[in-house]
Amino acid sequence: MDESMSRALFFCNSASLIWEHNPFWSHIREVGEAQFVIMFKHIAGKVSKKDLCLFAALSRAAWTSRNKAIFDDHPHCPQLLVAIFVNYVEQYNGYSRRVHSNQASCPSIFAKKWKKPNGGVVKINVDAAFFQDNSMGLGAVARNAEGQIPFTAARRVAGRWDVNVAEAAACLFGVWP
C-alpha cells in the first residue's frame, strides 16, 4: 500500500501521538489527508509565523517518529522527539535574534534579497551554526527558478569544528545529504 506524505506525517500511529493533543489537530482534521503543501498553506493561513515554525518542527518530529517506528529495532518516545525538535527551533530563534539585532551597526556584504537561478537550475543555500552545548547544525535549502523548494535538510553534529571546516561541511551536506 502506498503511503502519502500527509498520511505519514499526521495520521500514522506514531505521528498521531504527536498531533492529537496539540492545537494544530483541529486544523489538520479540517484538511484531512490532502497533499502536504495544501496542509501547510492551510495552517500558514490560520496561525502566526511563530506557530508555523512550531508546526514545521512538529512535522519533522512526526516524520522522524514514523521512520523510527518503521526502520528502528527498538521503541522510541514520540513526545521526546517533539521536545528535541522544539528545542532546536527555540535555539535557532535565540541565535537569530542575537545575530539580527546587531545588523543595523554592521554593513552587509550579502545580498538583501534572494536572486532566482536561471531556468532548469536549482540554487542551494547552506549554512553552519554553533550551539552553546558544543554541537553544530548544518542546513541546506534548495530553490528552483520559480522559487519552489524541492528540498531542505538539517542535521545536528556533536562537537565544534573550525568555522571554515563547518561551512565546508554545510556545502557538502547541501549537495549530498
UniProtKB/TrEMBL annotation:
Leader sequence residues: none
Domain RNase H type-1, chain residue ranges per copy: 125-175
PANTHER family named among the record's database cross-references: BNAC02G40300D PROTEIN, REVERSE TRANSCRIPTASE-LIKE PROTEIN
Domain of life where this protein originates: Eukaryota
Protein name: RNase H type-1 domain-containing protein
Alphabetized Pfam families for the sequence: RVT_3
Source organism of this protein record: Chenopodium quinoa (Quinoa)
Single GO molecular function: RNA-DNA hybrid ribonuclease activity
